[in-house]
Amino acid sequence: MADEALAVLDTILPDYSFSNLQETVFCEVWEGKTYAEIAESCGYEHSYIRDVGFKLWQRLSVALKQKVTKSNVRSVLRR
Hints:
By secondary structure, this protein is an all-alpha fold. The protein contains five helices and no strands.
């Protein structure tokens, strides 16, 4: 399921190269994980993971001309 969402991301932002951590954060959020859970599994600070996510949602918001957040990313990309 997250692989399908990553494919959608590549369609939305074809010229943007996502880092491994951005892809991980995106996929884990897609699967319903919290930033704290992602940070623990990846070995990063919670605040750093939250910042990576925030910047990713901002970039998607600009590309889609619609506010994207951790809470609504699934519903926005399914439209």
